[in-house]
Each structure stands twice: as structure tokens, then as C-alpha cells.
């Protein structure tokens, strides 16, 4: 039984080699024992095609690469987006922009009716940010709002939807 399986395997292997018009590996190579050929290595007597580097067409590639920096002097655009200030504010915390260069303040609804505002991408002293946010929202609403600080994910959650107010406040601070 095992002899017929080996003969079938070798017959199948030969059929695959001839169908794909491949050369079998050299008898002394480590792949020959397993019946494999390393496709990353050229066959004996073959040379690989050379790679030609062309700079003439690079101008077409350049327009596809996104800019590494955001323009700072653009001012407010029609969509309401505002570029970050050229220098970060001198505060114990920093709020990085999202990958689309927006202020990372989001709203969420949990359990069907619980409204939450989330401030993400906080770096530095998150407790100082919480204190400043509480003071700002107390001026806006007139009452102390419950907040939750997560030091692991560096996020701040505030009860209620205050995304517009917090985004405007963070923009005025220079983030």
C-alpha cells in the first residue's frame, strides 16, 4: 500500500513539474529530498531580471503621497475645520489630533439613553485636563457634571453631549 502511494506521489509530482514546465531541483539540494524548489532562488544557469529605477515618473507618485504636515496658516475652512496652532499650548496635558487632523472629541449613547462625551488621545496629566474640563462645563451648564478618567487608555468621559462646546474650547486653547 505504501509503495503504491509513493509511486502515485512521485508520478503526480512529475505530472505537476511537466504541466508547469518547471525544472526539478538539483539532486544534492535540500529541496530535492522533499520534492520542492525554492522559488526565491533562481534556477541554475538562470539570471534574475534587473530592476531599473526611474525618476521620470515619480511626479505621478508624489501626488498620491499625503502631506506629512498640516498647513497652519490656512485659517478656518468652509467645512468648519481649523488647523492646529503652530506651537502647542503650555499646559500639563496635550491632546493630539486624530489621523484625519480633527479634535478627538466624540459622543456616545450607551444603554439606550445614557449620553456620554469622550475626549481621546490625551497625553500628560489627564487629571489636570479633568479639572479644567469640569471648571469649563460648570461655567457652561451651571452644575458639576460627573466625569470618568481612564489612565490606561488616556480618555476622559463626561456625562452628557458636550462635543461642540468641548471642541470649541480645545480649539481656543490651541489644540
Automatic annotation (TrEMBL):
Molecular functions per Gene Ontology: structural constituent of ribosome
PANTHER family with a match to the protein in the record: LARGE RIBOSOMAL SUBUNIT PROTEIN ML49 (PTHR13477:SF0), MITOCHONDRIAL 39S RIBOSOMAL PROTEIN L49 (PTHR13477)
GO cellular component: mitochondrial large ribosomal subunit
Family to which the UniProt record says this protein belongs: Belongs to the mitochondrion-specific ribosomal protein mL49 family.
Coiled coil: none
Source species: Periophthalmus magnuspinnatus
Gene3D superfamilies, per database record: SUI1-like domain
Compartments, record wording: Mitochondrion
Protein's recorded name: Large ribosomal subunit protein mL49
Main location: mitochondrion
Organism lineage string: Eukaryota, Metazoa, Chordata, Craniata, Vertebrata
Entry keywords, A to Z: Mitochondrion, Ribonucleoprotein, Ribosomal protein
Keyword Mitochondrion (UniProt): yes
